[in-house]
Amino acid sequence: MGDIKEVKEYLTNLPHTWCAGCGNGIVLGAFIRAFRESGIDEDKLVVVSGIGCSGRVTQYLNFDAIHTTHGRALAFATGIKLANPELKVVVMMGDGDALAIGGNHFIHAARRNIDLTAIIFNNSVYGMTGGQLSPTSPINTKTTTTPYGNFENPFNIAELAIAAGATYVARWTTYHAKQLKKSIKEALLHKGFSVVEAIAGCPTQQKVKPAEILRFQKSIKPLGVFKREEKEEYVEKYLKLVKSLESNLETEKL
Amino acid sequence: MAKEMPKIGGVFVQMEDEIASISATIGASMAGKISMTATSGPGFSLMQENIGYAIMAEIPVVIVNVMRVGPSTGIPTAPSQGDVMQAKYGSHGDYPIIVLCPSDVVDSYLLTAKAFYLAEKYRTSVIVLSDEIVGHMREGVDLPEVEEVKKNMPVIGKGKKIHYTGLANEKGFAIYEPEKYEKLIKRLYDKIENAKDVVSYKVENPDAKTIIFAYGSPYRTAKAVLKLAKNVGVFKAETLFPFPEKALRKVAKNAERIIVPEMNVGKIVKEVERVVGDSCEVVSVTKLAQLIDPYTILRVIENG
Question: Is A72 within 8 Å of chain B by CB?
Fold first, then answer.
């Protein structure tokens, strides 16, 4: 990937606050490369984030970018998309952000099949606040809030998204940066609610060396594109309704 | 709204919960549309975090709260004015807020229009704080024309590379220095509290010895008292916050007594006491879960 200069054009306000070895930078790099290949107009792309390490992306991206409140990025994005359907709205969330506090918005955005692209930085931990359990932490994991091990079952993000109605769903890890980029590009070009889960490591909270995290990610299964469906999208349906009501009114006037 | 909005090229969406509703409302405003949401007490509680977000990020939104009895599910849907302090202080942190209180159908129309005007002009959250009686009121009205409201902020999707955040910020980027934070908060207060066109009120018989200070549906009660009693005036607060201190002080100069009828345990009466308690007697009249009838206030006037 000898395109660092081109990627940097879309970054701003550096240095960032992410730790050495954090997976977020790889996901962000994959997003920028995917965007460059997608042909989408940069003035029509909006990035929306929530709270947490992943939430910081909006400060670093040189696009229109909205840093919202914890868990609410998808709800903000829904308002943005409905107000200006021309925009490509990309929502970047962490696993706690998207699936714990924001879990309700996640399933309902999927249910509506609204044209948003959700990229979930899944490191299975609340990194920024001190390594607490997240809804994707594996069973038996020891975290600061589960010092005796976790008794809860983790969400399977991809399966949850499919069950809730998302029409493009993929999962990759930061080890699979090229495949991740390809899926993000496909998600950006998909009409409807698209979800890309990017499994990323948090060396600071998980106390594992970044290289070991990447080696482990090689063995994670299943990965790939799990859902790809053409289905009428929510905003388009609404615009059709507006058009039909307008023509009704005009006929009445005549 | 669901029926009318698409007819005029607008959008109505029923979100999954009130937190989502306020979030989508703010998002729509950022993307260049005039936007609002409406709820009652329980939903208003859920919206509080993002009401503060809109104030910090300086995004215009209008929130209608039709007050009902609480706390919790209370009596659905008996009337109340119990949320007045939540409207003022409900979100966390230090922030100013504009709260407008309609008393009838025309008010509901005009003050909602004013709420949009103020929200866009000052780039802030504006609360239209109605109550169950006003919310369900039906009456014949003449509605005057109101001025069209224009966006007064950079909106996304125009290539401007805007960054909005709920972090304390300068031009969208986080600040951490206490001095800069203090300057920011003072500016947010200053733009609302020193604005000339935010506070509105009406005074009838300002020279009367007894003044009824009323907001929301108790203003209707106060109007009935005006017809039944002599030497009584009414101060109608259309803007509840910022509190109409100056105007109230002026009226209180000639008054011996100010009566404050409220459908709560007596909340705004504390504001009235703070402002004019040293110059005249302040009397609280309260009723819970029902409208205050004129005779309740008349008895207070007659019995001294």
Answer: yes
